[in-house]
């Protein structure tokens, strides 16, 4: 057996998660797996008959983590387990589901096939970033999708000086900028008119959010580089800013603060049933199959 100990992590805010979670646990047990449930998931949905574990305990004990929820749940689990090399498989109990790619009605068949050894694995890159003020690191964090610098509250546009490996790239005034992994290219970056990157690319994506100068365009750079974005001022305009590491925010940035971003050393391994295709996901989620009808027909 490829995965002897399996953890289940759920979006416990969802009503009705208890029944499919218990059914999945039963499927795993029948396959001979030792099953554990993430502690908050078990507490909030009322699962008392299965062993519960913290994320640290899951990292130390589990061979596989099954995520039941939406992409946000998958991202949170990836961040919490990034240091433990536990592979993740996503069952969509949310809305769109780009990275929780298994439909809930196909969960038992798909997971059983994976447990039997029929699966594909791919490693997804992470970002690590830090906020620096006067040489002191104020905050650091990691992100699976993106690190976003944006204006705070109702303030005006923020100004950023952007450097790549200490080489000046450009200045920009905008509502913000998104620094994305290939995984995150189908999230906020896509909504801000960024390109879609294949998840196997070794690249970072910069996408401006509502830039003042329309010539500011998304840029793809090697992920072996370090990006440095410094909040600057222009004339009498000065704005604060927030930095978001996926779902974690630092909201006390000031003019002169610098945000350093690079690819993290750790990766996250995603497990998919055999036959998975990134392009199939795009066709299903973005309606790539739809061809505009001829108005004359």
Question: Can you give keywords for this protein?
Answer:
ATP-NAD_kinase_N; single chain; six-stranded parallel β-sheet; NADP; Tumour Suppressor Smad4; alpha/beta; Rossmann fold; 20% helix; eleven-stranded antiparallel β-sheet
Number of strands: 17
Give the rounded overall mean pLDDT: 91
- Helix tally? 7
The CATH homologous superfamily of the largest domain is called Probable inorganic polyphosphate/atp-NAD kinase, domain 2
> Structural class, from secondary structure content?
alpha/beta
Low-confidence stretches: none
Largest sheet: 11 strands, antiparallel
> Can you give the helix content as a percent range?
10-25%
According to CATH, what is the topology of the largest domain? Answer: Tumour Suppressor Smad4
What is the succession of H and E elements? Answer: EHEHEHEHEEHEEEEEHEEEEEEH
Q: Beta fraction of the residues?
A: 35-45%
Query: How many domain modules?
Result: 2
**CATH class placement of the largest domain:** Mainly Beta
Radius of gyration: 21 Å
**Which architecture of the largest domain per CATH?**
Sandwich
What is the 3D shape?
A: globular
């Amino acid at each position: 057996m490829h995965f002897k100990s399996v953890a289940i992590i759920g979006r416990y805010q969802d009503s009705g998660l208890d029944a499919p979670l218990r059914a999945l646990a039963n499927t795993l047990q029948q396959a001979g797996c030792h099953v554990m449930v993430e502690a908050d998931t078990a507490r909030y949905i009322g699962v008392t008959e299965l062993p519960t574990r913290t994320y640290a305990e899951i990292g130390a004990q589990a061979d596989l983590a099954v995520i039941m929820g939406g992409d946000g749940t998958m991202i949170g689990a990836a961040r919490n387990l990034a240091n433990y090399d536990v592979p993740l498989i996503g069952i969509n109990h949310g809305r769109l589901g780009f990275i929780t790619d298994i439909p809930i009605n196909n969960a038992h068949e798909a997971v059983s096939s994976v447990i039997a050894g029929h699966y594909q694995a791919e490693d997804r890159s992470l970002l690590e970033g830090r906020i620096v003020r006067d040489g002191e690191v104020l905050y650091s964090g990691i992100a699976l999708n993106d690190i976003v610098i944006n204006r705070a509250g109702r303030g005006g546009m923020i100004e950023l000086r952007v450097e790549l490996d200490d080489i000046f790239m450009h200045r920009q005034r905008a509502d913000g900028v998104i620094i994305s992994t290939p995984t995150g290219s189908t999230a906020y970056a896509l909504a801000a008119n960024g390109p879609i990157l294949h998840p196997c690319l070794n690249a970072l994506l910069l996408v401006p959010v509502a830039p003042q100068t329309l010539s500011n365009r998304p840029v793809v750079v090697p992920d072996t580089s370090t990006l440095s974005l410094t909040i600057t001022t222009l004339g009498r305009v000065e704005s604060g800013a927030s930095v978001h590491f996926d779902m974690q925010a630092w909201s006390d940035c000031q003019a002169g603060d610098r945000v350093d971003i690079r690819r993290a050393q750790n990766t996250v391994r995603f497990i998919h049933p055999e036959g998975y295709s990134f392009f199939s996901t795009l066709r299903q989620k973005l309606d790539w199959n739809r061809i505009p009808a001829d108005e004359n027909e």
